[in-house]
Amino acid sequence: MPTQTEDLRRRIVADINAGVPGAKLGSERELAERYRTSRSSLRQVLAALEEAGLIDRVIGRAGGIFISHAQVQRSLSDVVGVPAFLASQGYVAGTRVLSTKIGAPDATTQNALGLAADDFVIEIQRVRLADGSPISLELAQFPADAFPGLLEQQLGGSLYEILETQYGLVAARADERIEAVNATPEEATLLGIKPKSALLLITRIAYDQHDTPCEFSRDLFRGDRTRLAVTAQGRGIGVAASVAEASVALQSQGRRAV
């Protein structure tokens, strides 16, 4: 059972997730009455939420508690799991496992992982949290033959860590494609946002140390909570491009594939 303080924190975070950046939650007095708690207990929780970047406290006649929704930064230069880059920025990472299954891959997944028509994939769908707030919805697929017993592992943390410690495989590189899309009603419900809100869709093929594709995933990051970062190096005129490079491509205006 959660403590009273933790229960209060979860209730406030739920209201933050249901709101929009800049919206006013209320004054301390109003919040204490709404959550039926003491001002001292409320201030303790608010201080932690402010430190985590989820709220801003403004003093004065027009002041109060406002939703901040600080952004998390995802680097495009490193192949790391969500818990690692959240921890590096001071967030507490969390996970809700939505579904797991073993099934036949669709044509896109089959091509991405280099599978035969009669091969199977392990599919794991999860919501990732930063300080209790949903930031991404991910659907990861792995070759079933390469990772027997994967679904018997603890799936709340880094899948890359499981691959390394349990199967001896390291995610050595990844090819990623990034698109701006709008949330479907189902995606919006899972991420605690409004339908058609902006999302960043990152489609990734990860390769192990033997340059064999080991993961195909589609990650949806909240546009209001995420910024992307990449370190690029100049090479000068007349110098050939290296294998590792970033590119931007315009997408046609067709519907997003599901």
From TrEMBL:
Biological-process GO terms, alphabetical: negative regulation of DNA-templated transcription
Listed GO MF terms: DNA binding; DNA-binding transcription factor activity
PROSITE patterns per record: HTH_GNTR
Domain HTH gntR-type intervals: 1-70
UniProt entry tagged with the keyword Cytoplasm: no
Keywords: DNA-binding, Transcription, Transcription regulation
Xref: PANTHER family: MANNOSYL-D-GLYCERATE TRANSPORT/METABOLISM SYSTEM REPRESSOR MNGR-RELATED, MANNOSYL-D-GLYCERATE TRANSPORT_METABOLISM SYSTEM REPRESSOR MNGR-RELATED
Name recorded for this polypeptide: HTH-type transcriptional repressor YvoA
